[in-house]
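Q: What does the assembly look like in three dimensions?
Context provided by user:
Components: three
Sequences:
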Amino acid sequence: MSIIVKNLSKQFGNFKALDNVSLEVPSGSLLALLGPSGSGKTTLLRIIAGLENADSGQVQYENEDVTQQSPKDREVGFVFQHYALFRHMTVFENVAFGMRVRHRPKSEINERVHELLHLVRLEGLHQRYPSQLSGGQRQRVALARALAVKPRMLLLDEPFGALDAKVRQELRQWLRQLHDEIHLTTVFVTHDQEEAFEVADRVVVMNKGHIEQSGTPQEVFDHPATPFVMDFLGNVNVFHGRVENGMAMMGALNIAYPDYPHAESRNATAYVRPHELDIEHAPFGTSSLEARVMQVNPAGSVAKVRVFSEEFGLALNVDLNLERYAELQLKPGDLVYVAARRVRVFMPPAADYAI
Amino acid sequence: MASHRILPGFRLSLSFALTYLCLLVLIPLVALFTKASSLTPQQFIAAAWTERSRAAYYVTFSSSAVAAMIDTVLGLMLAWVLVRYDFPFKRLFDSLVDLPFALPTAVAGLVYSSLYVKKGWLGQFLFPWGIELAYSQSAIIMVLTFIGLPFVVRTVQPVLESLDADVEEAAACLGASRWQTFTRVLLPALFPALTTGFALTFARAIGEYGSVVFVSSNKPKETEIAPFLIIQKLEEFKYAEATAVAIVLLIASFAMLIVINTLERRTQAANSAAN
Amino acid sequence: MHSIPKHLPTAKVAATSRSRSAQEDPWWVRWTLISLSVLVLIVLVILPVANVFYHAFSNGFGAYWKNLTGDPATLHAIQLTLFVVPIAVFANVIFGVAAAWAITRFRFPGRTILTTIIDLPFAISPVVAGLMFVLLFGARGYFGPWLQQHDIKILNAWPAIVLATTFVTLPFVARELIPVMEAIGSEEEIAAISLGANGWQTFWRVTIPNIKWGLLYGVILCNARAMGEFGAVYVVCGRIIGKTETMPIRVNTLFEGGTAASYASSFAVASLLTMLALVTLFIKIALEHKTQADLKEAAEIQQTE
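A: Here is the predicted structure of the complete assembly.
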């Protein structure tokens, strides 16, 4: 079942949570709503579920307009950030709840609950109370409960937010597997870009109530559409400079920029990820920046080097792979030359300018 | 926790508190039980279980139970309205719930005795319908309901406030109607608080004297409550009989206290385990 | 430390400012419940209070004033209440602070039993409480003969009234202070000791400023209950007109007087007690804001640690 969201807006007091947001979630996909807190991602999810009413706009499931429907009638599986398990009910009763309120026959309930507990690998724990479970187990009960009523879609609000790192990792992979098995249209909210990229097959990056970019994880990571996305998806080095005549001049870094062939000079900002910078002991290429090594930290999967360019008063983070690091034998105080393999240039939007 | 002994005053504060409790609470209690134990079991039963005293227990416990039940229903409704809805003068109404705590019971008794008589503010409307509350057991129940009103509200209110909205949303997403959510999710969560409130109201009501003596006709075997009987026996200088009745009352109160404590501990345990 | 609200206050605020559609009841349910609740409070609480003043002032302010001041027995009852109550409240404040200090600042065997014993007077009928003092100090009581020999009068005199009142109101201050002191914790006091303060300095400069609103709250409640205590005092005071009657007992005597005049006087005295209740309520609301703010602050400080 696909989800279509058209021109949603929502305001809380003076705070604009959603500003004219439109989105389509293809049937059977696993989509991540990614963004910092306050970006409107949770509000969007809650409006899709009917837990919040939009000020304007429309929500459709396939061709059915559900904007005015109450959550009770939407048949949506929703998993809450803090699970929202019924603490006075056993695991069994929690999972059975949706069927009980629909007055399904006992035998059917029994069968379905055991089937789901098997699916979430919690067989044998059906008599436990939520307080007797670990965080990861509670999360899986919440999931089983949401799936028990055979929902039309699954919506998860920060599903792994409250878990510790190791359990989170396991559950991510498990959620991916589960989705591959049951192919239910799934939307989950997260502020963790790593999580979004690892689990989802589509990522929607949100900021300040609007969508910055949506696409496959690969598209979003390789071709960030805006400085915000670039910045949000990981560490970046930022250079301020100008563009003119198909060139971007960022201090010592001069890069070809064919997107802007005009003669008129404009302000621009260049973003370079730490792993896209390289270090040599001698000047190299057309433009390399002279800098001094401040700190080296080779502990981890890459060596993190921090250099400082006195000429431009600029500190840069460089990630080197460990072989390269071993080759260079860097020490704090070394004079080195830095060049960028890849640069993304963004020009601030100018209203009076038209290409 | 050894670190707590860094602070001074342990011996001073504890010995003062214990001495105070001994003088004011324990010695009088011991006196009561010593007096009771001076009776043989037969004597005790003869004193505590007469026809008149049985009637008095019945009036006391049945009135208290009915009042506590009314208060539980009203208290749940008031707590719900005060927590969930907004309406004009809400803060005023919220604080009025505490008035029965602050109002001396003698005043409550006095005014309730005047409200429901034939020419009273409320009696004038009720009498034409044949509802005569004054001086009957209904009057006792009315005034006990007033006295106990705050207990259920004030025990349920914080629990209702602390319930996460998530849980209700989860129920709605799973297809439960508002009523199903209330009966299957909210009511069970409020149940311990409701029981505690009921027990507090009941315990308070069985000991109540000041207000009841005004509104009841205090007729033996009809509208006489157990505390009134104790005073009657005292005025006849029948200390042993008074003590026997008091012991029955005391045991009932202690049982309620134990129930309340267990319930409170259980709610706290449940709450802390879930966090 | 279960008494500290564990929710992040900011999250709570954000949650309540949202309109949770799943938590909303239909308008007719809301309307019915609100009307019913308001009706209950009007019939059960507001009407009675109004009725007290209506009866008290039914013959005008002059008659009201005369009812209060014209009768020496009534005046004496007011004086006796104003004499007895401060003693009982003061004793219970000292006890409450000592008990709360011992219970919240130290761990010792029997700590939970102690907390339960403090609650006992709540569970004992005031009449039974009175009876216990009669059994101790009455003419045929355990200490009665000895007291008579030494010509000490306790029963049917003010000492018994003080004892009974103190007994009935014993838990109020302690019960109010224990959760407050538990929530505040002892870190500040330990810090004061480590900075060289002695016990009394720590208590007066650190503890008291931290608990002052909670303490005052306990005092207010204790005072209201003490002034209004009826059952226990009724049993021990002997009800000697003009000598051992407190205000609530006076209300009863006048009520039983049977004449229209004494009935009006009874309501006049009751109106004073009602005003006391209203003032108590007013102070209570003001203090609740203070104590809640204090607790919240304590919780926030602990969270940031």
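Follow-up: The first helix of chain A runs from residue 41 to 49.
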